[in-house]
Amino acid sequence: MSFTHTQTQQTPTYVTVVSGLPRSGTSMMMQMLAAGGLSAMTDAIRQADADNPRGYFEVERVKRLKDGDGAWMSEAQGKAIKIISALLEHLPPNQRYKVIFMQRTPGRDAGLAAQDAHPSREDPARIDDAG
């Protein structure tokens, strides 16, 4: 008797949210999810630079969640999207989410030094997810 295992690819019925504080590895997690086959939602407005040479994987419209602009989140179903931690409370309740929350161990390492030197430090009012 032999068995054959067939794996079918189904689109998830939820939105995968990658979140965390700036410089916590959210862009790296988005890269890993994309490499594993999950579509990463990005608008490519923010280009790769020296801080994130492989890109930021961001969607500019995410910043408007706090203003109630979340109807577009249905487009993220079955995909991964990066949303800074301060905006998680503004996710529309009509979607299902799985959240991957990135954390960094406190300490003075290269990542935290990079956070101190990051351009967003020049303007603390800037809502930005540079990680």
Summarize the structure in words.
With 131 residues, this protein is α/β, with parallel strands linked by helices. Helices cover 14% and strands 14% of the residues. The protein has two helices and four strands. The chain has helices at 26-35, 110-117; strands at 15-20, 39-40, 79-82, 97-102. Strands 2-3-1-4 form a four-stranded parallel beta sheet, covered by helices on one side. The N and C termini lie far apart (51 Å).
Roughly what is the average pLDDT, rounded to an integer?
83
Helix content: 10-25%
Neighbour order of strands in the largest sheet = 2-3-1-4
Report the total helices.
2
Oligomer: single chain
User: Regions with pLDDT < 50 over 5+ consecutive residues?
Assistant: none
User: Helices and strands: which structural class?
Assistant: alpha/beta
Radius of gyration: 17 Å
Distance between the amino and carboxyl termini: 51 Å
Reported for the largest beta sheet, the result is: 4 strands, parallel
Shape category: globular
SSE run: EHEEEH
Total number of β-strand segments?
Answer: 4
The proportion of strand residues reads 5-15%
Question: How do the strands and helices of this protein lay out in sequence?
Answer:
Blueprint lengths: L14 E6 L5 H10 L3 E2 L38 E4 L14 E6 L7 H8 L14
Parallel strand pairs: 1-3, 1-4, 2-3
Give a short summary of the structure:
The chain has 131 residues and is of the alpha/beta class. Helices cover 14% and strands 14% of the residues.
Q: Which key features would you list for this structure?
A:
single chain; 131 residues; alpha/beta; 4-stranded parallel β-sheet; 2 helices; 14% helix; globular
